[in-house]
Design goal:
This protein is of the alpha+beta class and about 40 residues long. It has one helix and two strands; from the N terminus they run ββα. Bound molecules: zinc ion. The site of zinc ion (ZN) has 8 residues, from β2.
Length: about 40
């Protein structure tokens, strides 16, 4: 199964995706969206 960024929906074939766990669920986020998640949506 292909993983996609939880924020922008980009696939791991296009960018580096990082896996992370949140509330027991495994999520994937790309390197572009990771700073957004860290610093908030603004
Ligand atoms: Zn993304």
């Amino acid at each position: 199964m292909e993983h996609k960024c939880l924020n922008c929906g980009v696939a791991s074939e296009e960018v580096i995706l990082l896996s992370c766990e949140y509330k027991g669920e495994l999520l994937y986020v790309c390197v572009k969206c990771l700073p957004v998640l860290i610093h908030g949506s603004h």
